[in-house]
Amino acid sequence: MPAQTRDALPVTLLGLDANAAASSTNSIPVRDYASTSQSATAVSVGTTATLLCNARTTRTSLQIINNSTTVVYVGTSAVTTATGAVLAGAVGAVLNVPVRSALYAIVASGTADVRVLDIFE
User: Fold this and answer.
1) For a FRET experiment, which of 1, 19, 31, 107 has its CA 20 to 30 Å from that of 60?
2) Given a cut of 50, is residue 71 above it in pLDDT?
3) How many other C-beta atoms can be found within 10 angstroms of the C-beta atom of residue 57?
4) How far is CA 109 from CA 3, 73, 106, 112, 115, in A?
């Protein structure tokens, strides 16, 4: 379900006359994120590119959380340990990724336990 836009709230911005009437130039639309959905998954990442999440055009937030002490490298389907974004090898390390495309991960050796929290409309 798409996020809902509510009536704009009047705000006072610095530099505006405090007695000015609220208008579309000094209002901020408020989004209702209570209507968002989420997906939480566990993924075992190995030494070949492993799919973390599929592409999602309505994604609003994506967190990759390391649940192991193995360094994880995140990127496209062609990710390698030389090209991926580094997710530190510490339990609880988090990588916030502002993308709507599919993401993959790889490790140099062994496996890593990774959690994926995908929030979408």
Assistant:
1) 107
2) yes
3) 8
4) 41, 12, 9, 9, 18
The whole-number pLDDT of residue 94 equals 96
The residues near 17 (Cβ < 8 Å, ≥ 6 apart) are none
Please give the domain boundaries of the chain with CATH numbers for all domains.
4-35 (no CATH), 37-120 (2.60.120.770)
Check pLDDT > 70 for residue 55: yes
pTM: 0.72
Place of tokens 């075992």: 44
Region 48-55: mean pLDDT is: 97
Q: What gap in Å lies between CA 38 and CA 48, rounded to an integer?
A: 27
